[in-house]
Amino acid sequence: MRKLRAIILLASLPVMLAQAEPKLVPDVSQREIEIRYSFTGAELLLFGAILYPGGRIPTGQADIAVVVKGPTEPIVVREKQKVAGIWMNVESARFRSAPAFYAVASSRPLAELIDERMASIYELGLGNLQLSPGTGAPVDVQQRFEAGLLDLRRRSALYVENPKGVEISEGVLYRARVRIPARVPVGTYTAETFLIQDGRVVAGEVREIKIHKLGFERFVAMAAERWSLAYGMVAVAISILLGWGGSAIYRRR
Fold first, then answer.
1. What is the reported pTM?
2. DSSP tag of 85
3. How far, in Å, CA of 239 to CA of 247, rounded?
4. Which among 13, 55, 68, 102 is placed 20 to 30 Å from 81, CA to CA?
5. CA-to-CA distance for 175 and 66, rounded, in angstroms?
6. pLDDT tens string 38-90
7. pLDDT, tens digit, for every residue of 10-48?
8. Helices (H) and strands (E) in the chain, counts
9. Which residues pair with 91 in a beta bridge?
10. Residue 178: is it exposed, middle or buried by C-beta count within 10 angstroms (0-12/13-18/19+)?
């Protein structure tokens, strides 16, 4: 009988341990974002609650980090140098899976919340993005191009870090705001929420966000993707007509 009880206890141990961990109940203000001709960007509100076992809030401080990213895409970064007085593309590096958009907000600076190893596992922070270089360039060259890519996308507001972007109320409720710029690419995005305690991630949840174009913008995007040759020819023809029309008007004056 004792042996049977011991077996039952061991079998139920994973369930008991899982119940001892807190859980996240997250949500986002918009599951779909529509891009129209008048689109100037959007602001996402990420909010939710932390459910503790038995409803008991721990005495230690709990922190939240939220990450909005996607979609991943291959990208080539080119470096310009001055050659004979002319700026030219001299070197380049290819990355296989760089996120087109990445924003992280946290209740405190990430360096105070989590160690480098755990931050790298969960890709928390711009310095921990797994960009997957596609060339066999030396490490120092890869690092230079990675820094260049991060700088370019920071300046375009496509890569953002906000170390005080999450508010936690009563140790249970949290909220964060993430700005989506007007030039954001379409696709499927993920909103990840992480609960961090004592330097480790103890809970995490993911929600999907769809960003897509509507109206004439959608038609143009589909035409460029599906009928690239015809789209290019039409674009060239329109450019020629506009140039000819502009010159005709100028001559009449």
1. 0.75
2. T
3. 12
4. 102
5. 9
6. 778 889 999 999 998 877 777 777 899 999 998 988 888 887 776 666 776 66
7. 444 444 444 568 899 999 998 888 887 777 888 999 999
8. 6, 12
9. 79
10. buried
Between the CA atoms of 82, 85, 89 and 91, what dihedral angle is there, to the nearest 10 degrees? -40
The token duo for 195 is: 């609960």
| Token pair for 17 | 């341990």
DSSP 8-state class, residue 36: -
Taking the C-alpha atoms of residue 122 and residue 64, their distance in angstroms, rounded to an integer, is: 13
- Which tokens go with 78? 């080119």
Domains and CATH numbers, the chain: 19-69+99-129+137-212 (2.60.40.3880), 214-246 (no CATH)
Which DSSP helix (H) or strand (E) runs through 241?
Answer: helix 228-252
Distance (Å) of CA 223 to CA 44, 201, 220: 29, 44, 5
Q: Which amino acid is at 127?
A: G
Cβ neighbours of residue 83 under 8 Å, at least 6 residues apart?
A: 90
> Could you identify the residue written with the tokens 């141990």?
13
